[in-house]
């Protein structure tokens, strides 16, 4: 008969936590395990052991392991997006300053890290087999790209260089691809780019794509 508490771990003493806190702990445990040992390391038992909870608690919050893993992926992507866009809506900053802030945040720790690239690559590898993971990927990607399009539109308008919606879409695709590439370089091969300021590279090259000087980051609105 399967034990409800993972072996080798004492049952967690009772602490009154909100459902949101408990879900967050389970999600973080799943992310830790995936980051350390890959997708297969995040079994229900290993997640329960890492979070020091019973298997029943996982079943209470998530219908299936796939639901938990997808929630972990969504949390991971949402956190990176929030960190990257932290200053994107600051009304006291000029549009190009906000654009520069997104580039800097995306190409600097904590967003750019070996752990984040490892997690991202692990989840991406599941897209072909996990419809829920694919749906989360598509949605979070489009959410970020839509925000980037809006910021590019504002930046060009402030420079008196408005563009068509299709033109903005093409610029967003190019800028996002460049940021993704630099992010992968910095996170996957930190030793190979040691000493390189990838944020500065991103500001320079995306500035060339947009035809806007982003090196100074702009100023107050």
TrEMBL record:
Keywords: DNA-binding, Plasmid, Repressor, Transcription, Transcription regulation. GO terms for molecular function: DNA-binding transcription factor activity; transcription cis-regulatory region binding. Transmembrane segments: none annotated. It comes from the Bacteria. PANTHER family: HTH-TYPE TRANSCRIPTIONAL REGULATOR RUTR (PTHR30055), TRANSCRIPTIONAL REGULATOR-RELATED (PTHR30055:SF228). This is HTH-type transcriptional regulator BetI. It comes from Pseudooceanicola algae. The gene is betI_5.
């Amino acid at each position: 008969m399967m034990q409800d508490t993972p072996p080798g771990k004492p049952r967690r003493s009772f602490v009154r936590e909100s459902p949101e806190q408990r879900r967050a702990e389970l999600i973080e445990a799943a992310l830790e395990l995936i980051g350390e040992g890959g997708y297969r390391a995040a079994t229900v038992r290993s997640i329960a052991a890492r979070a020091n909870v019973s298997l029943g608690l996982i079943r209470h919050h998530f219908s299936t392991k796939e639901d938990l893993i997808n929630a972990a992926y969504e949390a991971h992507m949402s956190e990176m997006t929030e960190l990257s866009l932290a200053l994107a809506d600051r009304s006291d900053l000029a549009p190009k300053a906000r654009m520069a802030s997104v580039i800097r945040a995306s190409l600097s720790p904590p967003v750019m890290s070996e752990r984040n690239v490892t997690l991202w690559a692990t989840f991406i590898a599941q897209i072909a087999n996990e419809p829920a993971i694919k749906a989360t990927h598509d949605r979070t990607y489009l959410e970020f790209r839509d925000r980037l399009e809006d910021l590019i539109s504002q930046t060009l308008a402030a420079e008196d260089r408005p563009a068509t919606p299709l033109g903005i879409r093409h610029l967003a695709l190019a800028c996002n691809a460049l940021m993704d590439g630099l992010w992968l370089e910095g996170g996957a091969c930190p030793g190979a780019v040691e000493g390189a300021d990838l944020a500065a590279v991103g500001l320079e090259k995306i500035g060339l794509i947009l035809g806007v000087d982003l090196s100074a980051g702009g100023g107050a609105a």
